[in-house]
Amino acid sequence: MKIVFVRNHEKQKWNEFVCKHYPPVGGFMQSWEWGIFQEKLGHKVERYFIFDNHSIIGAFTLIYYSLTLGLQYGYMPRGPIIINCNKNKCIEIYSSIHKWTKTKLPYLIFLRLEPPVDKIPQQLIKNKFNILSYYIQPRYNLIIHLDKNEEEIIHSFHSSTRSNIHRAEKRGVTVIAKQNITQSDLVQFSGMMIDTISRNSGLNAYPNKDYFDAFFSTLSNNNTNNDPNKLSLLSFCGYQNGEPAGTHFVLFFGSTATYIYGAAYTKYLNSKVTTLLHWTAMQEAKQHGIKYYDIGGIDEQKWPTLTQFKKQFKGEKISYLGNINIVNRPILYKAYNLWHKLKR
Length: 344
Fold this sequence. Notes:
about 350 residues; alpha+beta; eight-stranded mixed beta sheet; seven-stranded mixed beta sheet; 11 helices; about 25% strand; globular
């Protein structure tokens, strides 16, 4: 088994592999375009294929994070992606990653994996990995299956959600999908974010301006051919009687559309614009041949109101193992964990 560096000319091969073999949630974080976005944020990014003889059986994007004093750790967001990972093959693959990390990346304090599965063999965790008590990406996501006709999909929702969709339409709410996101759209969204943060008692769940600048410059209007093997971004702009009311941003990659950020003006919430925004995004995704709509992370303890809202769409709950670390430098790793605990 070999782990081989992927070069720029293999971009199409990479995205095709990821699209074909990733699970319904989180595949966009292993796309080539997401790596470009991370580079714009200042991170070093590398991609690797895992070979068994001459066949590719896995892949992962490795993002380097810099700490003080020139120290680093690595992170595989929702990775590695592995084909048909039965128990014996899974042990072999993860053991190979462990050995490769120790040999090729000894300067890292640790390498953080985020397997897109709900479990791996326990003897691996016990013998080679440290499992974290907290999660980087959500532990649970909710997906709505779109491989039915629209009438069947909408009738699968909770009755209150169906009513809110009709209520929004009666109250003059309309939604426009945009691939080319303008500066004016971003200014409008910024105002909605400020309103949303204020409504949530000052809790800011949004990234900073540099993050959004890199995000939109990478993904806005970058897939005019609607290639399903290329990560793309659509904005869904909601209006009530012609006035901007709410905006959702949705990523399209492979067979999944992923709701990633949204905000709305408080004064328009009674129009049920947010419900119609999700439903319109699902309809658009279905027209693109998308099979799943990932409505995002859920957590009854951390986000009770938001989780209750999302669960009204009656989707399938997807759970994940979380993060597991390969430790290269134990003393520095303990110091990092202490610092992280104090920071949290």
